[in-house]
Specification:
Blueprint: H1 18-24, E1 32-35, H2 42-50, E2 56-61, H3 64-73, E3 81-85, H4 91-97, E4 103-109, H5 114-117, H6 144-150, H7 153-164, H8 169-179, H9 185-196, H10 207-217, H11 220-234, E5 235-245, H12 248-261, E6 282-284, E7 290-291, H13 294-299, E8 307-313
Parallel strand pairs: 1-2, 1-4, 2-3, 4-5
Antiparallel strand pairs: 5-8, 6-8, 7-8
The structure holds S-adenosylmethionine.
Residues 13, 15, 36-37, 39-43, 60-63, 66, 87-89, 109, 111-113, 136, 223 line the site of S-adenosylmethionine.
């Protein structure tokens, strides 16, 4: 089944791996679907089109601005869509509020959208001058400013190392603490660049630290772990879960979760007798993650790092 509305978007965000996602979700008329990261509604529009005439979609996002874009994009399907300002970690409660106890497929397209990255006021990018914010949820009470200007140096170094995998984390944290108070993203990028070295392979030296701060501000990796568990609990037998990740930290979590949930025993290998009482809930449909073709990458450079993993809920689980 293919969606003719296509992958482009008036909002400036082009959904990645669009056709792969629609195929992976095994969409059909009358189905109930959750897009846990609805963003500008690009994938959501395809889901609704492929589940015509009566498939329903619950779309969640932490970003109220994104939900405004999604509402415009999904206007042609308005009778079949419910949009909610909520984290995908709360998808169970949100689905339950609609009277759904099971759904046919769930999509998580992680990270941030082009609209968020390119809005200087959100503070996500070192390419624009903006506040030290980086919140997905504008109502969230924890901003990048808290980390950059108030976190103890050792903890800041740990954040940059763990979430940015930057070998120069300690030096960067030290330089940030010395330069306090940092006022904006340009100031932060300049301080990082003074310690993180020059551009490598065209990658700006502040890339990893900005990623690390964003992950910490939004507690992204914990949300992902909770979201995956919750999603599996909501899927009907043969229901599909598709997750698009954009960096190795996310992808590792998805891969390990899928591996664990596809095994009947998760005892350590040295333990000869099983004591875990775990039963498999998923069948993994993507041994290796699906990656974008070069044509897609040439139109949408964000697709370069996208990795799609798909699993199906077992009928026996
Ligand atoms: C890559 S964009 C999604 C784009 C969308 N698939 C489309 O086609 O337009 C990721 C979205 O996830 C949202 N987001 C991030 N973490 C979230 C969470 N825990 N719960 C809900 N939304 C989240 C971001 O605000 C952002 O709008």
């Amino acid at each position: 089944m293919s969606a003719s509305s296509g992958a482009g978007s008036a909002s400036g965000h082009t959904p990645v791996l669009y056709q792969n996602v629609l195929t992976a979700l095994n969409l059909h008329a009358g189905g109930r679907y959750i897009d846990g990261t609805v963003g500008a509604g690009g994938h959501a529009a395809g889901i609704l089109e492929c589940s015509s005439p009566d498939g329903r979609l619950l779309g969640l996002d932490l970003d109220t601005k994104a939900l405004e874009y999604a509402a415009i994009r999904l206007e042609p399907f308005r009778d079949r869509v419910s949009l909610r300002h909520a984290s995908y970690t709360a998808m169970h409660e949100e689905a339950f509020a609609l009277g759904w106890d099971r759904v046919d497929a769930i999509l998580l397209d992680l990270g941030l959208s082009s609209m968020q990255l390119e809005d200087p006021k959100r503070g996500f990018s070192f390419r624009f001058d903006g506040p030290l914010d980086m919140r997905f949820d504008p109502d969230g009470d924890f901003t990048a400013d808290e980390l950059v200007n108030h976190m103890p140096q050792d903890e800041l170094a740990e954040v940059i190392k763990r979430y940015g995998e930057d070998p120069r984390a300690r030096a960067i944290a030290k330089a940030i603490v010395r330069a306090r108070p940092l006022k904006n993203t340009f100031h932060l990028a300049e301080v990082i660049a003074s310690k993180a070295g020059t551009k490598r392979k065209g990658i700006h030296p502040a890339t990893r630290t900005f990623q690390a701060l964003r992950i910490a501000v939004n507690d992204e990796l914990n949300a992902l772990k909770v979201g995956l568990e919750t999603a599996v609990g909501l899927l009907c037998p043969r229901g599909r879960l598709a997750v698009i990740s954009f960096h190795s930290l996310e992808d590792r979590i998805v891969k390990r979760f899928f591996n664990r949930e596809s095994r009947d025993c998760i005892c350590p290998p040295e333990q000869l007798i099983c004591r875990c009482e775990h039963t498999a809930t998923l069948r993994v449909l993507t041994k290796k993650p699906i990656r974008a073709e070069s044509v897609e990458i040439s139109h949408n450079p964000r697709a370069r790092s996208a990795r799609l993993r798909v699993a199906e809920r077992l009928t026996t689980a």
